[in-house]
Automatic annotation (TrEMBL):
It comes from Microbacterium saccharophilum. The gene is hutI. 4-imidazolone-5-propanoate binds at residues 88, 146, 173, 239, 315. It catalyses: 4-imidazolone-5-propanoate + H2O = N-formimidoyl-L-glutamate. It is an enzyme of class 3 (hydrolase). One of its GO terms (molecular function) is imidazolonepropionase activity. Catalyzes the hydrolytic cleavage of the carbon-nitrogen bond in imidazolone-5-propanoate to yield N-formimidoyl-L-glutamate. It is the third step in the universal histidine degradation pathway. Zn(2+) binds at residues 79, 81, 236, 310. Belongs to the metallo-dependent hydrolases superfamily. HutI family. NCBIfam families: hutI. Gene3D superfamilies: Metal-dependent hydrolases, Urease, subunit C, domain 1. This is Imidazolonepropionase. SUPFAM superfamilies: Composite domain of metallo-dependent hydrolases, Metallo-dependent hydrolases.
Amino acid sequence: MTAALLLTGIAELTTNTPAPGDPTGTITDAALLLVDGVVAWAGPEGDADAAVAARAAFADTTVHDVGGRAVIPGFVDAHTHLVFGGDRADEFEARMSGTPYTAGGIRRTVAATRAATEDELRARLAGFVAELHRQGTTTFEVKTGYDLTVDGEARLARLAAEVTGEVTFLGAHVVPAEFTGDREAYLDLVCGPMLDAVRPHARWIDVFCEEGAFTPEETRRILRAGTAAGLPARLHGNQLGYGAGVRLAVEAGAASVDHCTYLSDDDVAALAGSEVVATLLPGVEFSTRHPYPDARRLLDAGVTVALASDCNPGTSFTSSMPLMIALAVREMGMTPAEAVHAATAGGARALRRSDVGHLGAGARADLVVLDAPTRVHLAYRPGVPLVREVYVAGAPV
Ligand code: NIG
Ligand code: FE
């Protein structure tokens, strides 16, 4: 039997279905009809009875009054590193006393991850997934990159694929210690046997293109190997300093270039003339004390911006998209509406997904009921747990 759920009493509904002058497609005093886990209709509450009659005539419709609260699409977190062992709280503590972040810390997490059993990693990952859901994230990407052996990277990708379809191969995170002095051999491994082993579980390929990680030439080679194997590109770029990341992402036709903290005018122009999403990760700047990326400059240039958590033990050990929204509004020049859009529709665009990140008819019914009358409260009340109810494909989680 068809299962239908009608949400009423929505003070402010963010659909992200663009309307003239309003990219957020906001409806006040709204209702939302979900049928079989998909949005069937969104509109003014006064039209709800007719909408139900027209679309769910034979359905058993449950009505749920959300009590004058705001409803937004579930957050789409397009950048996480959630499969790893241990943590690096000691490095964070040292950074807060002035020690700079370097990519070298990744090798410590690699050692802890290799030492972890599969059951330990699976249980930890399940804990993170619960943490994401509690905070309103309903779609998330997960990268490999903390094992850096053929079998180990395949193990991380397989575990990640148990919880998401958005798995990214990041064998090019750093050159592991055992290949110091023979980078070429490691590149051969990443572009050959490691790629082959991970590919069945992955959807994307990524490279950490940065001083201390991979050079532009190495990045180009790895992205080419990945795309030739059927894994489209995304990229870590321009995180710790100015560099070639954005240019390479545009050249490779990447779905997204992530971080974008240090951008030249040419980088911004290149992004604006491309389909590449700039995924900004303010949890990193919070935790490394680098300057926040300038979202305003990107938006004013016409670049599509996404917000993501980059949840990882080195640079951003938070999975909170509400925190990213608050930081983006306070520190990066975004309006609350732009930040919520970037954390939902922007993330979906960064993953090239049209079924999530919005609540138009046909979307997967992934949504958040906020304990607030408007989405502005996500930035206006930072740190307050405003996620009251979360639905994935029409079912509460
Ligand atoms: O996105 N930049 C590369 N990877 C992570 C950091 C990983 C780590 O330090 O463990 C990031 O910030
Ligand atoms: Fe990252």
